[in-house]
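Support request, please re-run this one:
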Amino acid sequence: MRISRSVAAVIGVATAWPIVYFVAFMVFMLTTFTNRGEGLMEELFDYLFIAHVLTMLIIMALLAFYVVHLFKNDSMPSDQRILWMLVLFFGNLFAFPVYWYLHVWRTPPTRPAV
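Re-run finished. Output below.
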């Protein structure tokens, strides 16, 4: 399954978002709970909730994409597919960027038919 470079780049940005969000969320929570951001949680809770739900939806969409890509990827041996599926399910936040780089970004770009 070949993907164009522009689509692979968009998928890469979506893949990076959960990690960026996780770091930002942890910084926000640490700031809030150390009393430096007193009242900040109440002010930003609605936005934080929306960002959290959207991030979860992005993670589920990425998981679906990567599993479909995994089983449509003819260049991957079948014994590695099961291993990658388990890694994607259980370590998704950290496995997504690795899989994206190895199997989506590094594949040769799609060439138009002549």
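The chain has a mean pLDDT of 86. Residues 5-105 form one domain.
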